[in-house]
């Protein structure tokens, strides 16, 4: 497998996203290596030694994706026995011309605490945990969004992703078997109807997920899953609650769709 | 403020990371817009209308960061009244030459459920929640990592980030006031010592965070915070537990440092 390195003076998340987006276009497997926090010349020399050793071992030049702005460190990385892709360099000078402003590269500004979104995000994580799975229905005035749906339709991971990535306070409330006889919005939800967003899922997928938790139970039976989903989707339509089917989507995709539909404001970009 | 658009046929996370990394080099504020899931010509025309309307309103051409591979959609976006930055195009043909393989662009492969990491990540989120804050000390055999530290030193957000982003199962265990008289590793942790990773934090920052939760309490007092941190750091050193100080770091940075130090394998890149 061709080795690929993602390197930066910070988390290397940007280099990873950059390299991964490109490599995913190729029908091949790669051997991934991340080297983060290369903040000094000494660490750059260490990274170079590692890259060169792997180059020698594999017999193929590694692909190196980096975002260094410090010229001294850049020169060391650029001198590795590797193919170097620096995605900043192609865009900085056109942007400088367009903006008529000179770039002021600082070390790893993105994904760092200096983005000022830290407290929002930690508060939002605490909020999501305290208001997970209907555990506290009296706090919904503070929610930015309230996710609803049957058990195991994706509410909790989505709430946590909204909190961690964007500082959005997401509560979530499950509709359970007990609610199903005559499913309607409870008063504590009705009061905050504008914040409600529904999730649904295909019955087959729900059965699989539930069966992994409680095999051969009523909870995971085809009949029960179908009934719960039918009732919940009927409610969404009756109450005009926006909803999406999470079956074929990752947590990033569900979140992106929710943000697009609701226009919720993020506390972090 | 100059408008900036991040557009793609998927979540637009790659376009956001790409644009944000570039724009953060400039000492200016931008007005951010994301348009995700532009999967059809009709949606591309809608996006174009939106971009052109904002161009007209602001009197300045918006900056548009995109990653489209579909030529029809690309042509529509490229024809907007805007400055277009397409970060794929600069790198795809050099990579094709280097790899001697032709790129096979598929629509939004990254950040989608097709990355095959979905189940790992959801399992890891469930694991993190079930093993948060010492709530279950009998499950540590299944942990990839066990974060330890005093209350409010960053354990929970870090556990969740490890789970959501990388599918890594992280338990976390708090050392509390009751443990402090003669702090040592409990047996259920000693058994899994290789998995333990410590967090610490500056006393002033800890006091702030705790004071927001319980103002003027013993819990948030300078004396208590200093004592707990002193004891915990002494334990880390005595037991040779790797640890980092989370004070000046975002959850991404803490996670990246932990991954670098432990060499933990990710289930998602």
TrEMBL record, chains A, B:
Catalytic activity: [pyruvate, water dikinase] + ADP = [pyruvate, water dikinase]-phosphate + AMP + H(+); [pyruvate, water dikinase]-phosphate + phosphate + H(+) = [pyruvate, water dikinase] + diphosphate
Binding site for ADP: 149-156
Superkingdom in the source lineage: Bacteria
Pfam families, A to Z: Kinase-PPPase
Root EC class: transferase
Sorted UniProt keywords: Kinase, Nucleotide-binding, Serine/threonine-protein kinase, Transferase
EC numbers, comma separated: 2.7.11.33, 2.7.4.28
Signal peptide positions on this chain: none
InterPro entries the UniProt entry points to: Kinase-pyrophosphorylase, PSRP
GO molecular function: ADP binding; ATP binding; phosphotransferase activity, phosphate group as acceptor; protein serine/threonine kinase activity
Role of this protein: Bifunctional serine/threonine kinase and phosphorylase involved in the regulation of the phosphoenolpyruvate synthase (PEPS) by catalyzing its phosphorylation/dephosphorylation.
Family statement: Belongs to the pyruvate, phosphate/water dikinase regulatory protein family. PSRP subfamily.
Official protein name in the record: Putative phosphoenolpyruvate synthase regulatory protein
